[in-house]
Inverse folding.
């Protein structure tokens, strides 16, 4: 009897240890917006969750239609990723959400923002984004053209494991507002990661053509003099950030067009980033996940054409 009790206690302890080590990733999918096939936050988040569910030691929860109502929704999260409309209606600045996210960041929880979710007002949320993820999209400073960047080289980082060169046409933002390297040195005057802030690593980098720089941008259509003037400069469309307190952040500017989640390399770099954000192990060849045309049609929001 004593032996059975001892074995049971050991097994219970091992189960508890495994459960405690499991990483929790929370995806907040924004409310429906844009025509069908665009800003499919719910369908995109559920597709990414389906892939993350194949990774052992990770649990993923998706909350649809904006910020979750339950106050306990983010408890125990190792990473929170917001894939939603941003700007003045950003869910991160509604109610007490900025404080909630700030408290999580102070505890070392990873924070990620995707597509329109990287845009935040410079005077309301912008300073926090610089602290949480190292940069953000600033209205009429950053730009959002539809174009096809060629992502051909990647840094040596867990997020890029198994990622091969790729390109797709999407609303890839660039010319972010970056966190300065020091409090007294603004490196973001021209949008380049010229003097790289400590902890910030550009992940998806490409050089827009002069035609892309001259616009039109999606909104406002531009062109902007400071964007045209930077002809020939590389731009960053995805980045990761190691916060000084040990927490992590990332920004991904693609994701406008839902069909592009069918690209295995776009999908992989984002899935890898979510694991890295939660401080989970990224597989040696990245997250392998097959996605079919039928998968891409699942969970689309009902929208008028």
């Amino acid at each position: 009897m004593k032996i059975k009790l001892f074995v049971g206690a050991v097994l219970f302890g091992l189960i508890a240890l495994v459960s405690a080590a499991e990483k929790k990733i929370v995806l907040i999918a924004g409310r429906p917006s844009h025509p069908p096939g665009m800003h499919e936050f719910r369908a995109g988040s559920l597709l990414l969750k389906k892939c993350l569910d194949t990774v052992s030691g990770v649990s993923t929860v998706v909350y649809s239609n904006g910020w979750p109502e339950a106050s306990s929704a983010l408890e125990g999260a190792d990473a929170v990723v917001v894939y939603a409309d941003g700007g003045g209606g950003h869910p991160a600045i509604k109610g007490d959400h900025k404080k909630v996210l700030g408290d999580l960041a102070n505890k070392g929880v990873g924070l990620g923002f995707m597509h329109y979710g990287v845009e935040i007002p410079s005077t309301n949320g912008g300073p926090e984004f610089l602290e949480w993820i190292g940069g953000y999209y600033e209205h009429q400073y950053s730009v959002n053209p539809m174009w096809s960047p060629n992502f051909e080289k990647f840094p040596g980082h867990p997020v890029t494991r198994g990622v091969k060169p790729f390109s797709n046409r999407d609303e890839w933002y660039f010319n972010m507002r970056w966190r300065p390297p020091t409090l007294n040195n603004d490196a973001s005057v021209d949008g380049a990661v010229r003097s790289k802030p400590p902890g910030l690593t550009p992940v998806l980098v490409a050089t827009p053509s002069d035609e892309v720089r001259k616009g039109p941008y999606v909104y406002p259509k531009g062109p902007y003099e400071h964007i045209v003037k930077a002809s020939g400069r590389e731009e960053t469309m995805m980045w990761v950030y190691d916060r000084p307190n040990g927490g992590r952040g990332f920004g991904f500017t693609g994701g406008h067009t839902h069909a592009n989640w069918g690209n295995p390399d776009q999908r992989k770099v984002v899935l890898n980033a979510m694991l890295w954000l939660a401080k989970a192990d990224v597989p040696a060849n990245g997250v392998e996940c097959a996605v079919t045309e039928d998968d891409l049609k699942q969970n689309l929001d009902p929208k008028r054409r």
